[in-house]
Every structure is written in structure tokens, then in C-alpha cells.
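Re: export button greyed out
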Amino acid sequence: MLETAEWICTRCGSTNRTLVPATASEATDECVTCHTRHALERDPRPVRWRAKPVGKAA
Ligand SMILES: [Zn+2]
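Workaround output, generated via the alternate export path:
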């Protein structure tokens, strides 16, 4: 079963959404706007996940 993880890009501020397994606590996704990869962590709040950039340093 999948659920929507919503996260805010730390680089450009865009809101992104990705589907993750309902049991997942971590995921990775790429910003649709600036293509920065982020590591996502499930937040206590529903739906919204914490995001931090991975890969290339700024
Ligand atoms: Zn972005």
C-alpha cells in the first residue's frame, strides 16, 4: 500500500509529492523543479515529510 509523502525542496522551496510504501520511514526523491535529490524522513505530522538535500554539495 502506498501513501503520498509531501515535502518542501530546501533549495527552491517547491512542494513535491511522491508515493512511498505506507510502512516506510525514509525515502529519497528528486525535486521536480530544480532536480536536487533529497533524503526524506517521515514527520510526526501526517503527509508532510522532512527533506534534506543529498549528493552534490551546494
Ligand atoms: Zn527544488
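The chain is about 0% helix and 55% strand. The button fix ships in the next patch.
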